[in-house]
Here is the input.
Amino acid sequence: MVIFSAGAMLFYCIALILVTSRLFHVQGPNRKAVMIASSIAVVFHGLALSNAIFTVDGQNFSLTNVISLVNWIIAFTFTITMPRLKVIIVVPVVYACSVLSVALLWLLPPQFMTHFELHPEILAHVVLSLMAYSALMIAALYAIQLSFIQNKLKKKQMMMSPAMPPLMTVERQLYHLIIIGFVLLSLSLVTGFVYLDDMFVDGKGHKAILSMMAWVVYAIMLWQQYTVGCRIRTAVIYSLSGAGLLSLAYFGARIVKELILS
Here is the structure.
């Protein structure tokens, strides 16, 4: 566990340095070198997560494990798409968060044991929820990149660099991610209503309510875009608002319970 965590943090840091040192260079960062370092980091991160989550007593879905799992999904996605997608601007944020999530995994190992083998339908709900949250968090990163590029264009500070993707390309990819995340979030809510008897009891009601509020935000965003069009600034606000609501839904109460009150 310690070796895997240390290896993941080391290679994430190497990838982070490789990206940031040439982020705004005319030729951009060396994508091949970044991908090699980040791929090794993702493998080590995955091994560390496997040891942390799958135990002899069941599956440990503690807060730090779930946060690290989400970061792993996001880092894995950005790593495999790097050769063909121009997402370099937000990559430093992704790898920096991954370093922190591995550190949390190592330094704060609380337990929240469950047994998904006894309830496969709940496992399906959890997987859908994690995939929806990861996709919509990646969309939030795209929204930040979209806002950054627009501001640079307005101030005429944009450099002709491979690290700077076209504005319309990022906007189109943002809506693709929002649609994917919205579908996954819809399925997550449906499976929650069908399979979870305690969705609105035992202090869990806020999760369902905040998740539904986020669903409404994304639904309005997509409706507005495909009817009258959505300005970039408005799309960014929708994306970050939805991501914020989901973060509060998924992690708000557990942060208080596991890290503050424990």
